[in-house]
Design a protein that fits this description.
This protein is of the alpha/beta class. Helix content is 46%, strand content 18%. Helix 1 (2-23) crosses helix 2. The longest helix is centred in the first third of the chain and has 22 residues, at 2-23.
């Protein structure tokens, strides 16, 4: 259930963000939403590849322009029933890169993201080094804000709260850790 709900949350975010982007390019509300819905696909299997993407934002082509999110692949990883959870995430990332993906978001539901936060942050750093030139980011959900949030930002917020509890000064958040609005 959390896999489906997380996918629905991300699809809603992507469609909303693209709708706003298209409205900024002079499209009317209905036209902008229709175009955004045409751009976002779920359970997409590219060509003859032996993979299926949880969520895919179409690439720009002669017939459509899917804006700043073009060619984005999103994989939702619940970390349930997968044996060694982090190996499953690494296997997923490797298979997507081998299939030609250059922009990838790995989205982990909030409870699992917090439980595995240190390991996921190390894995993100590892795959970004391993696959230089690829845009790979690990996210969870900002349910209140209605958008994904980078795991590194979640770690910073948790550290700030911990420091507040200890009476220590808090640090600032790194720029560029959440998707541009």
């Amino acid at each position: 259930m959390s896999h489906y709900l997380t996918k629905a949350f991300i699809v809603n975010y992507l469609v909303s963000r693209l709708t706003e982007e298209f409205k900024g390019k002079e499209a009317k509300e209905d036209e902008a939403r229709r175009r955004a819905l045409e751009c976002v696909r779920t359970e997409h299997q590219p060509g003859s590849a032996n993979v299926r993407y949880d969520i895919y934002v179409k690439d720009k082509d002669a017939n459509s322009d899917c804006g700043s999110l073009s060619n984005l692949v999103v994989e939702v990883e619940t970390l349930y029933g997968t044996g060694t959870a982090l190996h499953k995430v690494l296997d997923t990332i490797e298979s997507r890169v081998k299939a030609g993906v250059s922009r990838l978001w790995v989205v982990v539901p909030n409870p699992q993201a917090v439980i595995y936060l240190p390991q996921l942050l190390r894995l993100e750093r590892y795959v970004r080094e391993l696959f230089k030139g690829k845009e790979i980011g690990f996210y969870t959900l900002d349910v209140k804000g209605g958008a994904p949030v980078r795991l590194v930002e979640v770690a910073r917020r948790l550290l700030d709260e911990w420091r507040k509890l200890k009476g220590e000064p808090t640090g600032g958040a790194e720029e560029g850790v959440t998707p541009p609005q």
